[in-house]
# Entry
Amino acid sequence: MRSSFRRLWFSGFLVAAASTLTYGLVQGDLSLLALGPALAIAALLALAAALYGRRRLAQSEATLREGVARFASGSLEDPLPPRRYGELRALARAIEDMRERLVARLEKAEGEEAQLRAVLADMVEGVVVLDLEGRILVVNQRLRELTGIWSEVVGRHHREVFRQTKLVDALRRALDSEDVFVTEISLGANDERLLQIHATGFARADTPLGLVAVFHDITELRRLERVRRDFVANVSHELKTPLTAIRGFAETLRAEEIPEEQRDRFLEVIERNARRLTRLIEDLMTLSRVEGGRETLEPEVLDLPRLVGSVLSDMRGQIEARKLEVHQEHDGDGFVFADRLAVEQVLVNLIDNALKYTDPGGCIEIRTRTEARGVRLTVADTGMGIPESEHDRIFERFYRVDAARGRDVGGTGLGLAIVRHVLQLSGGDIAVESEIGVGSTFIVTLPPPPSAGS
# Structure
């Protein structure tokens, strides 16, 4: 600043002196008397210019200092005030360029953070990020749902947050591991939820910073694996039993000379097991179609009470053979909107199920009642009953409460599974109420016809 002042003073002095000398030459007067006032004026002008320049420089310096302090505090929204910075113009431009670059980087970082949070929020997997001490840096919504934590947890140690001992132990082992850590844990009061954990460390410039753990809910996957194993085992058994009988009696008929009466009885056994195989294959094909969504339904307005009467008429021979009583009761018009073949299949399977598990002399009651949300159909029997713990499982493929009796009466174990899937496709529902030694009631809801304005 001092050198600037000197340059300004010297420039002013030269200008003033040159002007005075030029004037003197023109007038032909170079006396000291004329030169003295000119020099004084030049000195005063130079001093004033220097003071003005110094003031402007000080103001520019103060403005830059204030702007830099504001930027350093994180306030980058407003640029430097538009003014002339003189010799500090290059510095002002550099500071403003730095501010613009910082704003751009912050906006990019905020955008990336928003994207990351959106991804974490939409993930079906739970995610938690821990530092090397085990404190929580990030936790997404899905993991909160899986573990039941809702308070603010960022910055707290995971041992203080997660109440599940198995989960805390798994995270501790993951933090201690130098490789990718994979394990499975079960959560819930009855270990009903199964989680698979994949955890790996993360670093910056080869400096470890913490751990990322991803939680996959594999409960449904394991259930499906169990169902698949059970299905293969059950199909193998259900096919093997009648095939063994058919093969055994066929070999006996071929190898031995046996009386005609005994031969007829053997042929009857072969025929009965062949029919059983046929029913099993047909039920498997039907179940495959409805489960795979390949069953095409054509809903129409149906008179459900009349359809019940038609199915009972077709099954009268079986009812009489079992020496059972069947009662009907219908409340309301009973109109539903569903596929005829699908409803007939539901009725046949439910009534056939009641016939098989009700002892001779027992009773089957079929009722329909028109309600606001559709028609309620109930099929009640006086059979052996179903334990409450088995109510959910009876709709699984091949599941039987009494497996031995189910095979004795010729059931395939697929009827109720077919009923549930057909009703789901039809917009209906099914439930069961049962008591051991009293009987079972299956409750079906079917949709009503569409209103005139729909």
User: Anything to note?
Assistant: The first strand starts at residue 126 and ends at 131. Residues 2-104 form one domain. Residues 32-72 form the longest helix (41 residues).
